[in-house]
Design brief:
The protein is mostly helical and 143 residues long. It has helices at residues 2-34, 39-65, 71-114, 116-142.
């Protein structure tokens, strides 16, 4: 019986890790649904989120059972994710959308301010190109 209880504890903790992974994934999905990101950037962010989730899962597996991976551990992880999306996610959707909206707005404001020098340089460059076009056209008209 003690063997069973010693196996039940890591199963339960891994189930909680699955719930946390589901939460991270739902937040990411909400953020991507509310933002307008180009396709190539979406691929990069998808990759980074999965790396983050893998780091989260394997860090907790190291803490829970010294990184020992067994079939029931993988099953507990997927069951935790399934339980999250079937029971908790529908109830947290409004709060998650608000948090995702705040996150998208915050990151948008930061990127807008960070790109201000580039927009200024682009404006100066385009004005210079337009001035060169105008001077080139006036030279052509004189000939």
């Amino acid at each position: 019986m003690t063997w069973f209880l010693s196996q039940l504890e890591p199963f339960f903790y891994t189930l909680l890790v699955g719930l946390a992974a589901g939460l991270v994934f739902q937040f990411y999905q909400c953020c991507m649904a509310l933002s307008s990101i180009r396709r190539w950037m979406l691929y990069i962010l998808d990759f980074l989120v999965w790396v983050l989730i893998l780091l989260l899962v394997f860090t907790f597996l190291l803490i829970i059972n010294q990184g020992e991976i067994r079939v029931y551990i993988i099953l507990a992880l997927f069951v935790g994710i399934f339980i999250y999306f079937q029971t908790i996610a529908p109830k947290t959707r409004p709060v998650m959308r608000q948090a995702a909206r705040a996150n998208v707005d915050f990151i948008g404001a930061i990127t807008y301010r960070a790109s201000a020098p580039w927009r200024w340089l682009e404006g100066k460059f385009l004005a210079r190109v337009e001035a060169l076009k105008q001077s080139g056209q006036s030279d052509d008209e004189e000939q």
